[in-house]
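Hello,

Following up on my earlier ticket. Below are the four sequence lines again, exactly as submitted.
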Amino acid sequence: MSAPAKTSERAICEAVRNLLETGGEASLSMRAVAQAVGIRAPSLYKRFKSREDLLCAAARDALQELAELLRHPPNDAQTYENLERMAHLYRKFAKKNPRTYALIFSSETMAAREDLLAARQAAAEPLFVLLAHAVGKDTALPAARLLVSYLHGFLSMELAKTFRFGGNIQDAFHFGLTKVLDSLLVSKKLE
Amino acid sequence: MSAPAKTSERAICEAVRNLLETGGEASLSMRAVAQAVGIRAPSLYKRFKSREDLLCAAARDALQELAELLRHPPNDAQTYENLERMAHLYRKFAKKNPRTYALIFSSETMAAREDLLAARQAAAEPLFVLLAHAVGKDTALPAARLLVSYLHGFLSMELAKTFRFGGNIQDAFHFGLTKVLDSLLVSKKLE
DNA sequence: ACCTGAACACCGTTCAAGT
DNA sequence: ACCTGAACACCGTTCAAGT
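Thanks for your patience. The regenerated structure is below:
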């Protein structure tokens, strides 16, 4: 006879993300996660083959949420404004889920995990499409790498509290974003 | 009678960095570090009050090395060329010490550690000085934040193997760097 | 002062046993 | 099929004892 499932993969991912944001990685023991969803640690291994697998599932969950967020820009606006808007949505997501955001990019856990690389790629897709349309296929790739590098770098440093000389951080973000977009879309913007 | 010191803080930091680069964070147990310098784990606590302290010391060590590397640009060159050169030195350091580089910026361990924030600031200082000279005091801060965000973001993604669509990565780095520097120094460059 | 072995509470993971 | 308690090897850390 089947023991009824007390939880679900979905609920576990949610619990992981909540625990992570509340208490940091240190609070993410298998026992703590299990308790949060009302089971015991060994049961988690029926659904995830290791702790790393569990964290990756939570990261994938967050990446899907991010992809969703970026998927539907209002397409009546200019390319430039759409890119600007997506950048601010990206920042908003990172600031709302700082530790999950760090998890997504924690190289040690995540590099070389095919599913996660694909999920990151999917999240970056709408941005890539906009850029391809704006700068042409030839430069779309390096252009995307510039924009994504700036976004990730800024957020990474902002969340790690590396910006310590005051000044308005929001303004600094917008300043850099404008420089990056301008440098990529100069000709486009003048049309 | 004093038991003679079998090792030094210096040697321990070196061992930590070697172990880290060789085997990743997983191989960085207190027992493994101790063994690498010929002592037992409890002795490490005479010098560092916790594992986190030990990792921070290694990170500080690496940051000092980076600061040294960036400290002496040939000042007969143009500001633009100096910035370009520093950016490539920064990338070279990160690629040579990928896991140590990740450690330096691992937010969870490192945020809010005053000594590390100061060390990061010291490493960024020469870059900041060059920019202040180039764009003026008013915009030096956001300009530095843009450049540093780009550098860190690009390296962070490159080391995490996030760039998966081929294309020459070195070229992409230079492409983005040129866009960033141009957008900041347009007027300067025309002089 | 610095080093050590023994011990503590904790962790990820396995496994045989229950329903 | 899913859940469980007991057990394993490991970990960071403490401490009393050695020199």
